[in-house]
Each structure stands twice: as structure tokens, then as C-alpha cells.
Input
Amino acid sequence: MIVRHFDIHTPKTKPPSKNGWEQARHGYYWMSKCLSTRRKMEIAETYRIARDAGQMHELDFENDCFLSILSDIKKQHVTLFELGAGWGDWCLALAGVIDHKIIPVKPISYRCLAVEGEPTHYEWTKEHFEIQNINGDVVHGAVSDKDGTCRFSIHAAPEANYGQAMIPPVKSKARRFLRNIYNFVFRNSKIPTIEIPTYTVDYLVKKYRFEHIDIIHMDVQGAEYKVIQGAATSIKENLIDYLLIGTHEKTLNDKLRQLLSPNFDLIVNIYTNSIGIVDGFAPVKCQDGIQLYKRKNI
Output
């Protein structure tokens, strides 16, 4: 598999309503309230810095990785798990590529599963799916190596606080007391938390009756290794074809490669906070790392 650049043209489609929507590059829309003005300015600044240095922004490169996967798939139906979905932008991207024919691909239908732990982002994903008839399910929860629970912070301004890591549960009363004291002294104790379920990929496959997962897109803020551990059965049974992973610690790239190498070929490997060199592309400026895997012998 070769990752290549795609020049795409956003189609002219109507928004769900006149106000409050912005069009994504693949044609479908996301609600403007999902992203604060400050966050938009921060993202625009990272693009400017990369452009002025003759580099490619990580989000543009990730988009080319995603499109390269879709162009590599040779069947008519494609499935996607978006883990750490935010407001479901990669599910919207998949739907846009297929429904609006953004690039030539074999798939003509799709099904998505989006998993998000932050409660407001979860609701936003549901709205995006329901209003625009995106074919898929939205799950409120986190993904890890075992089924259980964790906690997520509830920010007063979720549109400005994107990319939250799950807070593991503390079973010991003594440790829970000490953590509460620590949070009160050193952190913003005014931010409430909510308990949410954690699921494994293996559980989600069975629960939502997926016979196969063509693509897993993962942005889980440091839980990447645990997510793969929780997909052990699916990997063993060759149920997963492609993995597009945002890594959030430099050590994770090597740990994931070691864990996945028996079953997957590593196509792209860029470390956190680095400049990636990929044939056919300008240097890729990354804050998060990027890994792309393809299952062997497909």
C-alpha cells in the first residue's frame, strides 16, 4: 500500500439549515458550535506555521492517509470504527467520500460506529448522524482493554476543550481520598466529572454485530495500547484490516509496532512532536504522532 496525495474539491451541497453549520471538506456539515473561535484561531496558526516552513500540516496528511485507505479497499461495502470520535468528523468524511464521490473508490455503501466519552461531544455526534442520515451508531463511552467504567470531565465550554483523556477509576477508598485532595490542591476542583462505561473493541464488534471492520480510526489520548489489547480476539480472527492511529506519547509508536507487527504491516510511522518524512510529501509537521497499519496478506 502506498500513501499518496489527493486533490479534492468540496461538493456544493445544502446545509441542514441556513445558520449554524460549516461544511467539511468531504461535503457533509458539522455544527459551528462544536469549535470555539479561539480553537479555530489556534488551528489556523498551526497551519500558517507549517506552511511558512514549507511543511504539510498533520491534519492534511492524515486526510491523505484516510483517502489512501479507501482507495486501497476493493469491495463495495466498508465499515469504520471511530474511537474517540469527538463530533464524528471521520465518520462524516467516510460518508462524504462515498455519497458525494469525492474520489474514485470501489465502496458504494458504508456503516460507522462512533464512540465518544465526553457527554456534549457525544450528543453533537448523535445530532450530526441523525440530521444528515449518516448510517451508523453512536456510543457514549470510552474504549480500553477491559469493559468497566472511567470518568470524564464535564467542561463548561466543551467547544474549547477538545481531546480529553479518560480518568481511570480508583477502587481503593484511601486512594480515592488522596486523589480528591490532590485535585483540590493542584487542579481546578470546580470541573465536575461523570462516570461512563468503558468497552473493548471485541465487545463492540459483538454488541453491534459487525462481521468485519475495514478501518479503525483511533484518537484516544494515550489509551492506544490498551485499545489494541482490547481488540486481541478481533485481530486474531483477522476481523480488522486497517488501523489509523493518532499516538500521544513517543514511546507508544514502538510499543504498538511491537504488539501489531505479527498481524499488520506498518505503512506510516511518525512520532509525537516531530517532523515526518514520507515519500511524495512535504515534511509533515506533527503534534500528535501518526501510525497507519494494514493487515498482512490482504
About this structure: The first strand starts at residue 21 and ends at 23.
